Amino acid sequence: MRLPVFVSVLLAAAFLAPAPARAEVKAAALPAPVACNGCWKPALNTSWDWQLISLPKKPYVNVQMFDIDGFAAADGVIVKSLKADKPGRRVVCYISAGSYEDWRPDAGRFPASALGKQLDDWEGERWLDIRQHTGRLGDIMKARLDMCKAAGFDAVEPDNVDGYTNDTGFPLTAADQLAYNAWFANEAHKRGMSVGLKNDVEQIPQLLPYYDFAVNEECWEHSECTTAQNGKYGYDQFVKAGKAVFQVEYNLATSTFCGKSNAQNFNSLKKTYDLDSYRVACR
């Protein structure tokens, strides 16, 4: 989901942190990427749909990939049905990796110390202290990945993995986010699933070796899709590495972004915020 950025919180945290702690963060090295040689690697041009408010219904739209809610599909029935409908179709498991959702069946497992501020406009959802991923929070996320694997999903889309740019209630740093996002990608690969980087556009250069594709919301509306727009980061870096970009706009007319997306070799859609069955593909 697209959320407002609170850069002042990040800057305040950086200046108020004690010097030794800042030195430790700078010195911390990311783990080596875990190889996933047998994982699905989507082609640059891959047709897709993204439905989260409910599961897809027959007749299914003729696309090569569906991205759907992992908990709603945990029994594996819809995953099998989608694959049987179109041989070679892949299915991506949506889970939130950076927020607590009070309606999920594992909500009672989250430690109170890991729950931060509520996400704007998302009732019942709170930011997580991702620094706790070495403890119980990490165990919860591993269990969610195990759920995706058991249901037959090919890949994972972890949402809300850019908390450090938001007002989470925790002094999260860019280094904290990199450590968590790299850890999460490695855990997905250990289970034989590919993984997509959701938003977090500023950290693309560092996270590109860990992620197999990208999922983005509204980068054209916010003028942050390409390295030419941003200076140091952009989704064209995924394409250059041979990794697919799945991109959605909600407010823009297709006439204003489809031509640009096609020129960049992005797989762009016009969707509603509900992420229902409405879909207009750019190609």
UniProtKB/TrEMBL annotation:
Give the Glycoside-hydrolase family GH114 TIM-barrel domain ranges: 47-276
User: Could you tell me the keywords of this UniProt record?
Assistant: Signal
- Which N-terminal residues, if any, form the signal peptide? 1-23
| Protein name (database record) | Glycoside-hydrolase family GH114 TIM-barrel domain-containing protein
Organism, per UniProt? Answer: Nonomuraea solani
